[in-house]
Amino acid sequence: MKARLNLSTTPLVSNRRFIAGSAIIGSLALLAMLLLATHAYKAWRADRDFRGRERQLNSDIAKLQAHRDELDAYFNKPQTVKRRELASYLNGLIEQRSFPWTKVFMDLEQSLPAGVHVVSIEPRLVGDEVQLAFVIGASSDEAKLKFLQALESSPAFSKLQVLSESRSTRGGDSDEVRVTLTTWYSTI
Questions:
Q1: Quick check: 133 and 122 in contact, CB under 8 A?
Q2: How large is the angle between the packed helices 141-153 and 101-111, nearest 10 degrees?
Q3: Taking phi first (over 0 means left), then psi (-120 to 50 degrees means alpha), and beta for anything else, what does residue 22 get?
Q4: Which residue of 4, 7, 124, 135 pairs with 119 in a disulfide if CB–CB is 3.0 to 4.6 A?
Q5: Which CATH number goes with the domain that contains 125?
Q6: DSSP reduced 3-state for 76
Q7: 130 bridge partner residues
Q8: Looking at residue 173, what is its pLDDT?
Q9: pLDDT for the residue numbered 6
């Protein structure tokens, strides 16, 4: 039989728990470091891609600004300005031609009482609505009032506003009263 004798002066110390604990902690630290390194790499790559897109967008903005400057220079040339003014004038003429003059005169025919006539009429397109400026001549105040009442009750005319009224000083003039007014006209 063999007997184990410990002849040492200090007892044998086991470091197995310390080594196992430090191995686990070291493994966890290594895993955390790998996760942090992966996250840092992804953030660096995303930042690099973002900076590349930013450079591309800045380049595109510079190109578009240069193109806009070219267009501004072209459209501010005296020849182009004259063409634009001519086009605007011609578009105004086209709008006036497309104005329903016949319908306006038919509506006015129903509204005009005896003793009143239209001296001038001027349509103006304001947004999508038409504003008419009238100058009418009336033989008396009664005829003028009948005309204004007829316009107010007409469904084709709205927002009647009298701008001025003048009386004739000449004896031979058939218009005793001249009235300048504006009204909105419904083309529907």
A1: yes
A2: 120
A3: alpha
A4: 135
A5: 3.30.1360.100
A6: coil
A7: 125, 185
A8: 59
A9: 63
